[in-house]
Structures are given as C-alpha cells and as structure tokens.
Amino acid sequence: MTIPHFYMLHSLGYHRFIRELSTFSWLLALIIGLSLTNTCLFAQLPSGFSKNVVQEDYTTPIGMNFSRTGNQFFVWEKKGLLWVSTWNGTSYVRQATPVLDIQEEVGDWNDFGLHSICFDPNYETNGLIYLFYQVDLHYLLYYGTPQYSSTANLYRHATISRVTRYHLQNSGGNLTTDYNSRHVLLGESITTGVPVTYESHAGGTLLFGRDGTLLLATGDGGHHEGVDVGNRSDTFFQESLDYNMMRANENVGAMRSQMVNSMCGKILRLDPATGNGVSSNPFYDPANPRSPQSRVWTLGLRNPYRMVLQDSTGSTTASDGNPGTLLIADVGWYKIEDFHIVDKAGLNCGWPVYEGLEPTISYNGTNVPNLDEPGQPTFESLCVQPTSFIDDPNPALRRFTHSRPALDYSHGPNAITRVPAFNGTTPITRIIGTTGAPAGTSFYGYCAIGGVYYTGNQFPADYKNTYFLTDHSMGWIKNLELHDEGDHKIHEVRDFAPYSFETGIVDMKMNPRDGSIYYVQILGTISRISYGGNQPPVASASSNVTYGPSPLNVQFTGSNSVDPEGLPLTYLWNFGDGTTSTVANPTHVFSNTAVQKFTVSLTVTDNQGQQSIPKVIIISVNNTPPAVQITNPAPGTLYTMSQPTSYTVQANVTDTDLSGLTYEWQVKLQHNNHTHPEPILTGSSPVITVSPVGCSPNETYSYLLSVKVTDNGGLTATQSVTLYPDCNSASSLVTHVTATRQLSAVQVSWINPELLFDEILVAAREGTGFTDVPNGTSYTAVASFTGNGSPIEGGKVVYRGTGTSVTVTNLNPLVQYYFRVYTRVGNTWNGGVEVSAIPNLPPTAPSQIVQTILPNQPFSYTVAAFTDPESQTLAYSAINLPAWLTFNETTRVLSGTATAANTYVFTIVATDPGSLTASTTVTINTGVCTMFTLKTGNWNDPTVWSCNRIPNSTDAVQLNHIVSIPNQITASASKVTFSSGIKLLVGTNAKLKLSQ
C-alpha cells in the first residue's frame, strides 16, 4: 500500500504525531485525486469564485510579489533565482532569463534557500529590492579566496541568514540586476548574521512597514523535532560557537526566541538604508545600533514563515515607533498552529515557553537560565501569562508577559480552534462558534501560512479588509474578519476553500491590477483565485503514443479541455515541426531520419478571447525510452541514527544511445503524511546525504530517493527506492542532562531519546557517582532523598516514569550529590548519563545601611559585597529605587543628587545563579544638615560653619571639622553657634578620640 504524501518545506513542518491510518490515507488520496479534476476545482470555492493556473514549470518556487501597479509580478525560486512576468494586455509573459541569480551564495538545502524578496516603497524610481536567504557556508568562508569554488558547497553545517539589497535595471529590453550594487544590510560577516544551528526554522518574510522601516521575520534556528535547549549533539551548535556565529549565552536552542540580544525567533525592524536598528525600537541601544537588541521589534516566535501588514495601520513616521499591524502565521510544533496580531512594540509571542495559548509542556520545566539577564533567571520565569488584554505601557517591559495569539488551531484529526479570553484575571480559552467566541467552525491543520489582507474590489464587499489564512499541509483557505471589539480580535472565521483544495501553498499575494489573489504552490505552479467575469479555460492534451519509428502516426485528444463558464472553445495545436492544427482531436505524422524530439503543445481559447496555459506532450521518433534501476543504495537500506550518512548513488541504465543521457536525482524526506524535497542533483553518480531522523515514538520517517533519466530524444525513465531509519542504531541515552541547584534540592532535567523506550529511572547518591546499572523493574521511586526510595549502589531511586525532570528534595547543603539518568528499553537498562551538583544556599547580605546626606549635593556610596557560601557570582539589583538615585549593578555604587528633604527606603538584592536571593535595606535621610568647616585648625580656634540652609529644630547635626591635636588626647566641644545666634549645647565634655 502506498501512503500519499503532501509536499512542504521542513521549516514549515509540523513534526507531529502519526495519523497514517490506512483508511484515512486512502480516503485522503481519493479527495486529493478528485481535487485535481477541473470541475471539482471550480466547485470547491464559494459561488462565483474560480481558480486557474497562471504559470507552470518553476523549480521549487517559494514566494512572489507584485509591482505597485500589478503590471509585473516576480517569482523567486528556493535555489536563488528571481523571475519576472510582465502584463501584455491579455496575460503575463515571463521573461526568458532570470532577473537575478545568486545560486552561488544561497544555501539551497533542506528547508533553506532564498525565502523572501520585497521591493522598496519607491521601487518604481529607485529600483531597489531586498532579499532574505541562508548563506552557503562554503561561500561564507571562502568567497574571494583561492579556496573558493563556484561549484562547491558546504551544506549541513552551521550557517547564517542574511539580508541583502540590490538595484534592478533595464538592459537590452530585459530587467536585470546590477550586481555591483550589492549591499549587505544584515549578516555582512560570518559573525553578524542570524545564526542557524540545524536544518530548519530560519523564517521568514521581508516587508516594509507603513513608516518605511524594513521588517524581517526570523525563526528560532534550532532543532525542529525534540526539545532543543542547547548542546544538542545532532545540531550544529558547536560549529556556530566555533565560528562565532552566536554567543555562548545563545547556546540554548529554541530558547533563543526569548532572548532580547539574539536575532533568532524575532521580528526585526531595520533601517533599509543601513540595516541598523531603528531608534524607536523597544530595546534600542544608541551606542550599538547594529546589536540584536537594537533591531528587535517582537520576540517569542518559532518559525514565522509568512506575515503581512494590515492595510491602513501604523504611522508614516519611523520615529513614532508604529510601522503598522503585523498579521503573523507562526508554524507550530507538536500540537498547535498560531496566528498572531502584533500591533505594538516589544510584544512576546511566547515560544517556546508557550505553544499557542497555553504553556509548552516539554519546554516548561527545563529550567534553562537566561544568562543575559541579571541573576540568570529561567526563561519560563521571564514570560508569564497575562491577566488582561491591556499591554504594559512600557514597550521594554511587554516581553515579560505572554502576548497570546489571536487564534490557534489544533493538529488533526480532532479539530479545535480557539481564541483567548479571561475569567476575571485568569486567562482562559474559547472555542470558535461557542458563546463569547467568534462565529465559525473549528478546523485543524499542521502548517500555518500567512496569506493576504484583502483590500481589493473584485471580491464581494464582505471580503474587503479581511484576512485569508491557509495551511500548507491540509490545503484549506480560511477567511478571517478582524475587529477591535470585545475581548478578542476576530469577529468571524469563514470557510473559503475546503481541505485539500491546494496543498503546498507557500505564499499568497493580491494582484493590485485586478484584485484577484495569486498563490505559489511549491511544486512549481502559480495559480489565481478570482471572482466573476470570464475565466480562462483549462487545456487537456493527450496522445495514443509518444514514441516509435518514423513515420510515426499519432492521434491527439484535446476535447477533454474545459471552460469554467461552459463557453465554446477553439483549439490550436503546435506540432513542433512548423505545422499546426485547429482540430480538437487531430492526427499527425512525425518523420525524421534520425532520433528526433518534437514538443507538441495545445492552447485553447474561449469565445471571449481568454486563453489557457499551453499543455505540452513530447513525441520522439526513431526512439525507445531508456530503462533505469537504482543499484546504490539498495531498496530498503537502513541508515544509521548516530550521524548523517552519505551515499554515492548509482543506477544501471539501458538505452539505444547512452551518450546523450541526462540525470536528475532527488531526495525527499517522508515524514508522516508529507514530504520535504531536497534540491535536484545532476550527473550519473552524485553524492547524497541523509540526516539521522526517525525512530521517534508515534511518528514515521523514511527517505525517498528517485532518479529521472532522459535520453537525447526526450524520452524518460524514472525509478525510486526508499531508505529507512535503523532504529537499532539509535541511542537510548537521554541527552541534555542538567542539574539546577535549589535550596536544599536539585532539579535534574533531560531530553528523552527519540527512539521508543519504556521508562526513565533517576538515581541519586551522596559523595560519589554510579558505576552499576539497574536490574529489573521492582524499584520504588521517591523524590525526597530522605524518603523510602529503593536503594541502588549506595544511593536511592528518586524517579521512575517517562517525563523529563525531577526535583530531588531534602538534600544537605554544601554536599556534592550525583544523579544518573537511566533508560529502559524492554528488559534492558542502559548505562545512563550522570551529572552532579551541590544544593544551593542563599547569599548573605550585609547589615542594613543608613546614610544621611545633604539635599542638592552629589552623593555616592558603594554597597558592600554580599557573600555566597559557594562563592558563586552574584547579580545585584535595586528595588523601589528613588527616581533621583541610580544603582550600578556591576560596581554596586549608588549615586545621585537629592533635591528635597525626605527619607527614602529601598532594597538591594543579590541573586545567585540558582535564583536564591538575599537583600538588605537602605535608608537615606536627605533632611540632615551636615555641617562642614571652612578651614582646619585647633579645636578651640573660632571657626565658621555652614550647611547652606537654616536647620530645623529637629535636625540631627553632623560635625565635620579637621583638628590637629596630639594622639590619645581627649578634647571637648561645648557649643556650636549658628548664624541665627542660637546656641546648641552638645553636651559637657563630649569626647572625640582621634587617631594620628
């Protein structure tokens, strides 16, 4: 039985639980098959709407854009080519040569490539375009050096994403690129791009805000399958660190999305002239405008592959900090797809602390510290659920609250579509179609693709100023009516195109020329959805034979062509030999003395002048098709799960003339019910590489290797073989084991192995580690170390289950504990992975601080260092600091100038790496009249004193006078005379003991 597969990019992948039940699969195949018939395509859309293919034969197109007038549209291919088509009055005519070719530079592997192109708002006058893509590491390292080769690449390595600007120009009647105009705005060096540490999740979309700033959506750059919190051995994190593509603090996998000083998992807002951050960005640092934090506009995204700007929103002035409202489809993980409405600066969309509206179970509890933040708090603690729909008025503080999506929807087969709501201050969810929620019917999918905010006039009025959303895997299109009323931002969710209408959509745009919607299908077609009017017919061409000896008599059939409105058709056959026919089903004889290929095309036209796209048939005379059999790798080959595997592919080919053969090899990763196509390779025996994916519970993986051989007469042969993961080679060890120190406790966290396992056991021991392995399954686990957990090698069993963390409590301070995490598969325990830690103790604070100072005089005071029992580095902060005072968290210096008499009380806090704290209270009295002398001298010499104001009767008076008297001599002060003539007795024989 053959399982049908959808086509989609890996960065768009849903990485979900299996649902390939045979009945469901064949039913889905039937639906897909029916959807490909012309009549069903017309019927699937609402009444009055129709769909037709506009162009074909692109190679993995993944995006498109229109010029401002719609007289040109541009399509870019993943490998790094940009094409243009120009309106000639009746149809778009594609330029024969590409406008731009940067294939040498683009890293076209797995999900990477040329992801987005946008046009300058003044493109018609300045010709500027902006590109977002991943760079081939070979190009990044060696371009401009003797080691560089234009035909070489370094795929499956760490790399960066880059934004580049070019100038387009007209040359000889064609639109071309001035390659000398190249200017890199982001990623100008190997250390300044957006780091990519695995094979997916780079983002993204480039577009202009209404204020003329350039907005870029980036992905988290981490592993797409299991939990990635850094140090994951099957990623390229070490290369990223070695090449300084990312800082050591960024080695936290998907958690980079939550870091202000990382460009991963963000919406970046750039100055299109320089690539710098914009001064009105929420975290802008004027001393470093190119830093990640200066460029960040929004954080907490996973893979925001497509986003659009809501029309008529935002300011036209960049300094206002309001580029407009962004509508973002963020591709989800295991359970949920997200739709976000980002209407202000500094919002945190939540990933990976949240997936959709609720916490992400597998990432919560990992307790990964954010090393960029004071006190190194965990990522989970820095982003909490909101208590209302009101955002913090301070843009820089919004990141500490989850900005929940406007809508999320589940993965199948159960359809659940939700919006956010509140019960008092408690965040809740509502399912659409229920009370208090938008109207609509729940749906499911696996890969959200942001579509179009429709502002045209061709569609009925109900669709104007609404949003179209699609799902790459399930092929539906939904229409969302947005609003700002009530407690959610969506008024209604309407069905537009049903499941399987068109799988593989990667981009959608509105044509400003006629108001229709165009979309890109990743297998190579550009299609249009339009309303009313006369639609183009669809040609259908077939023949009874395609090869044979000359003269070859061929019967063609074109009468299966259809017109959406049922209008009569005329036919034009071009036989490729200089002759034509206008008969619906003609017969033609092809003759030649040698092997000859004839390209036959059929174009049909309705009686109102609308033409179809030509359909092509290859006829080859004096020829027979080749035959091909792949010999390496053999069918059913098992690839190892321990590392990537390379194969030098080979095939046996038979043909009447082997000299003119061409080869097209392609690898597709098959994951559940979709595939991830790799670039096509040429040559008779290229090298392919497959990654060690598979063996995850409840998921299926394999690689499909196919070859297409074409002879010099245009006839082809194809064959494919399937490679499967060798799950026996997969490690059963847990990974990313960490020990987080807590007060009299240690939290042990890990990532479970990808292969199917039975249980995890954690053992704890004081003083030394473990060498034995468990035996059997009769262990009792108790998380308290003083509890009755089963003994094991001098320690105790503290955990059994299938989770990813345990907090071991009742541990003694300042004692080293060892924790080993074992995995059982069947009856066999592995050797486990061990970590150690000492339970944490809080820092100790110095005594309370009391200072008395004079108003309007500079004040500076260094707070004494706190002590830590484990000598850990402490992070300092101040709470309730008065506005006139600053606290340097590095030097612990308080400084400032008070302007009025008052008493100020605030707190200095020290936090250790385990988030334990100590604090001391600081009291500053600014009402004290501090006296000082104008000269030094003997105590009894007449001296003038001043405190710059008349003291209050309740003032404490501090005497500051330098005297010169012998050592150990007692002196007395009897009175102090103020300028007002009032005498204050200090006390008889007040004693001052002075040192030398």
From TrEMBL:
PROSITE patterns: PKD
InterPro entries: 6-blade_b-propeller_TolB-like, Cadg, Cadherin-like_sf, Glc/Sorbosone_DH, Ig-like_fold, PKD/Chitinase_dom, PKD_dom, PKD_dom_sf
Ranges of residues in domain PKD: 537-603
Annotated GO MF terms: calcium ion binding
Keyword flag Cytoplasm: no
Transmembrane segments: 21-45
Domain of life of the organism encoding this protein: Bacteria
Sorted UniProt keywords: Membrane, Transmembrane, Transmembrane helix
A GO-annotated cellular component: membrane
Protein's name in the database: PKD domain-containing protein
Native species: Spirosoma endbachense
